[in-house]
Design goal:
This protein is 85% helix and 0% strand. It has five helices and no strands. With 212 residues, it is mainly α. Helix 4 packs antiparallel against helix 5.
């Protein structure tokens, strides 16, 4: 009696090997030597992959383990990087929050300084306006003083002219008086030559009063 052979499909063979701790990729590579169009059974499949299942499989499993170790190491490194990143991010957020607080304080201080500056500018503007008005008033007073000074100069000029005229007239008058005195003295001197003592006394008295 012939043994009944049960054919195995490629997908079933891959699943079978995966159940025996093969990787899916190793199972596919090992099954490449089998023609599944000929409907191989499990025994045929195991004979065909026996060469691959020995040292090659062990080598690949060691390589796989090493790769898994590297992956684990990389995962730990990535995890460490994530932790460091989280720490840096937290620190950055704290610094950003502190900087924001400082900026808000600076903005508040700048706003206060700006308000104070506006108040000072307003005061200075008012003071400047008052100074302009005072300056206009002062200019008006200066103009009045200039006008008064011109009037005074004109009056002084007139007074000086009158004074010069009076000096000239006074000099002329003095000359006239001196001439009269001289003439009178000559005439009185002629009269004194007469004998009449009363006439002489009267003339002397008149002469003295005339001469001052």
């Amino acid at each position: 009696m012939n043994n009944l052979k049960i054919s195995v499909k490629k997908s079933e063979a891959i699943k079978l090997l995966e159940n025996e701790a093969w990787t899916k990729e190793d199972a596919k590579r090992a099954l490449e030597v089998i023609d599944f169009n000929k409907n191989p059974d499990e025994l045929t499949i195991r004979r065909a992959i026996s060469n691959f299942a020995g040292s090659e499989l062990s080598k690949r499993q060691r390589l796989q383990a090493a790769q898994k170790g590297q992956v684990t190491k990389k995962n730990k490194e990535i995890e460490q990087i994530h932790k460091e990143y989280d720490i840096k991010l937290t620190r950055y957020k704290q610094e950003l929050k502190q900087a924001k607080g400082r900026d808000e304080t600076e903005v508040h201080n700048l706003a206060l300084a700006n308000n104070n500056l506006k108040a000072e500018v307003k005061i200075l503007s008012s003071t400047n306006y008052q100074l302009k008005n005072d300056n206009l008033n002062l200019e008006g007073k200066v103009q009045n003083l200039i006008s008064s000074n011109k009037d005074l100069e004109a009056k002084l000029k007139i007074t000086s002219s009158i004074n010069d005229q009076l000096k000239k007239e006074n000099k002329d008058l003095k000359n006239i008086v001196d001439a009269i005195k001289l003439k009178l003295a000559i005439e009185v001197n002629q009269l004194l030559k007469y004998e009449d003592s009363e006439i002489r006394k009267a003339l002397i008295k008149l002469f003295k009063s005339t001469l001052g």
